[in-house]
Automatic annotation (TrEMBL):
GO cellular component: plasma membrane
Primary location group: membrane
Organism: Halosegnis rubeus
Membrane topology summary: Multi-pass membrane protein
Similarity comment: family membership: Belongs to the AzlC family.
Keyword Heme found: no
The keyword Cell division is annotated on this UniProt entry: no
Subcellular location: Cell membrane
TM regions (residue ranges): 15-35, 42-62, 68-90, 128-153, 208-226
Protein's UniProt name: Branched-chain amino acid ABC transporter permease
Length: 229
């Protein structure tokens, strides 16, 4: 398939996920205003960081008056999982031009990674075009919803659980990815440890759980006679 055909295919596949991003973006925009950020600062944070969990953590810290170094460090720790994502999909986009790889690195999200990896496993023709097709709509939707959240998000009734959409989005991505014992063990142990370790400082629960999940998957695969990469 051509680049444009792959891009359109990725855009179609990401449409259901985009719907789940809408309430999450509204929450991020509203939270930024409630924490004392201006509209410009909220949008700047969204464009530069472009990571929902990291943005919410940063907004919370900024609202509490934390030093900038602490905010930046927290964002980096939470986003360490992106290093593993990059290593996982790098072989599938190795032939892409450097400028497309650079754009793809900036646009990397949990959703774009999950959708692309599932496609790469099932089709040899998909590449950077498909990945960008999933990532670009997510970026556009996130920025628009952040702006909308800044403008009207604070007026949303408190009883409306917009933040509940976040775990639903990740569950929708997780379930199709669990297709054998190794991925099941990785999801179970990684998720369990992350939940138990929620109280760790510097938001370390997520990267610790991710590392343990990866190790659990590799060990399980090896024990069952697989050849983990």
């Amino acid at each position: 398939m051509s680049f444009l055909a792959d891009f359109r295919s990725g855009t179609r596949d990401t449409a259901p996920v985009v719907l789940g991003i809408i309430p999450f973006g509204l929450v991020a925009g509203a939270a930024a205003v409630e924490a004392g950020l201006t509209g410009g600062q909220a949008l700047g944070l969204s464009v530069i960081v472009f990571a929902g969990a990291s943005q919410l953590a940063a907004i919370d810290l900024l609202g509490d008056g934390a030093p900038v170094a602490v905010v930046v460090g927290t964002i980096l720790v939470i986003n360490l999982r992106m290093v593993m994502y990059s290593a996982s999909i790098a072989p599938h986009v190795a032939r892409a031009r450097r400028r497309w790889k650079a754009l793809g690195a900036y646009l990397l999200t949990d959703q774009a990674y999950a959708l692309s990896l599932a496609k790469f496993r099932s089709a040899e023709t998909a590449g950077i075009g498909y990945y960008l097709g999933t990532a670009v709509p997510l970026w556009v939707c996130w920025q628009l919803c952040t702006v909308l959240g800044v403008v009207v998000g604070a007026r949303v009734p408190p009883w409306l659980p917009l933040d509940f959409a976040l775990p639903l989005v990740f569950l929708a991505l997780l379930v199709p990815a669990v297709d054998d014992w190794a991925t099941g063990m990785a999801a179970f142990l990684g998720g369990t440890l992350t939940t138990v370790a929620v109280g760790l400082p510097y938001e370390l629960a997520l990267p610790v759980g991710a590392v343990v999940g990866v190790l659990a998957g590799v060990v399980t695969d090896a024990a069952l006679g697989g050849e983990p990469a």
